[in-house]
Specification:
Layout lengths: L3 H5 L3 H44 L4 E5 L5 E4 L1 H5 L14 E6 L2 E10 L2 E8 L1 H40 L5 H26 L6 E4 L2 H12 L5 E7 L4 E4 L1 H21 L4 E9 L2 E6 L25 H11 L3 E4 L5 E5 L5
Parallel strand pairs: 7-9
Antiparallel strand pairs: 1-2, 1-5, 3-4, 4-5, 6-8, 9-10, 10-12, 11-12
Helix pairs in contact: 4-5, 6-7, 7-8
């Protein structure tokens, strides 16, 4: 407040000067307030603009203050907040972090009082590298196994002709096992080399005998009723590759029935409206997320390559494999190349 005694002691001219000075001070205060408001609006707009910039970043991004608290982050960063706990802040700018089954490439940049951290999901790249390494090893092993397996196959054929009839079932089981190993070798080499279909015309009902042969070559303990229904319809596909796909689905179905509590089982493979439907009464699929992932399986039998290779083959035919919703099974659709 203004001292009245001081104000009364002033002359009229001094009062006018004082009044004018006070008015100027008030006006300047309004100007400063207005400038502050404009500056605050600009700051908010700038902050929103920066937020939009980091939001378009595909990787998780954090900005930390000098206390290590989060100053700014995008939505990707909000999905994986605990990744920050695994970061080595003393590392030289770049590091890798594994969290919740995923791998992240971490980059750290320090700018004055702020620290910028980005986390890029490299899980898929790591998976591809792992698959490539596993594929190379599997291909090498397959090549090494092929020759001795061929010799065993030849010797078993000779043995089958010479032994007593009571021992022939044992040799037949050996031959079945050899046949399965040869299939695994073929599948592994196909998977590592890539699929190149040899498109030719054939009639679908030709697949019926191949499906029946596959069942005969597989060993199982339960009573399984197999229904194969293919029309006399001409298609243009790679016959050998399609047979391999159907074999994979048949063997998976047999394994699922073997793992179920039922004493009997049913497998149906039916061609309808341009698609092949494969269904079975076996154990339900335990983990649909890894269904088509290479070298992963939830079964007690198998090497985790059958469905992954089948998907590659069908994609090479410009088709698709879908999981059925109301019944346990698959729908295989092939592009019509007539």
């Amino acid at each position: 407040m203004i001292d009245e005694s001081l104000l009364n002691s002033l002359s009229n001219k001094e009062k006018e000067i004082f009044k004018k000075g006070l008015k100027d001070l008030i006006n300047r205060t309004y100007v400063l307030e207005d400038e502050y408001k404009k500056l605050n609006v600009s700051y908010i707009a700038l902050q929103e603009f920066i937020s939009q910039i980091i939001e378009v970043e595909p990787n998780a991004l954090w900005v930390l203050d000098d206390n290590g608290d989060i100053f700014l982050q995008n939505s990707e960063a909000k999905k994986i907040p605990k990744v920050l706990e695994y970061i080595d802040y003393n590392s030289k700018n770049t590091d890798e972090v594994e969290y919740d089954g995923s791998f992240y490439l971490i980059k750290i940049v320090s700018q004055k009082e702020k620290t910028i951290i980005s986390a890029t999901d490299i899980t898929e790249e790591k998976r591809k590298d792992r698959l490539a390494s596993m594929g190379q090893v599997a291909a090498h092993i397959s090549h090494e196994i092929r020759n001795p397996i061929g010799s065993v196959s030849l010797l078993s054929s000779v043995l089958f002709k010479k032994i007593d009839i009571k021992n022939k079932p044992l040799v037949l089981e050996i031959q079945k096992s050899i046949w399965r190993v040869e299939r695994i070798i073929k599948a592994t080499l196909l998977f590592t080399k890539g699929i190149q279909p040899n498109f030719q015309y054939f009639y679908l009902n030709k697949l019926t005998n191949e499906c029946k042969l596959a069942v005969k070559q597989y060993t199982f303990s339960k009573e399984i009723n197999c229904n194969f229904n293919f029309p006399h319809t001409q298609v243009k596909c790679d016959f050998e590759l399609i047979v391999l796909v159907l074999q994979n689905f048949i063997f998976n179905a047999i394994d699922a029935i073997e793992e179920s509590d039922d004493e009997k089982g049913v497998i149906d493979i039916i061609y309808k409206n341009g698609s092949i439907y494969v269904t079975d009464s076996g154990e339900e699929i335990k983990n649909k997320n890894i269904l088509f992932e290479s070298f992963k399986t939830t079964k007690t039998k198998g090497h985790g390559l059958g469905l992954a290779l089948s998907l590659q083959i069908i994609k090479a035919h410009h088709g698709k494999i879908e999981l059925l919703e109301n019944i346990k099974g698959f729908k295989i659709t092939l592009e019509d190349k007539k």
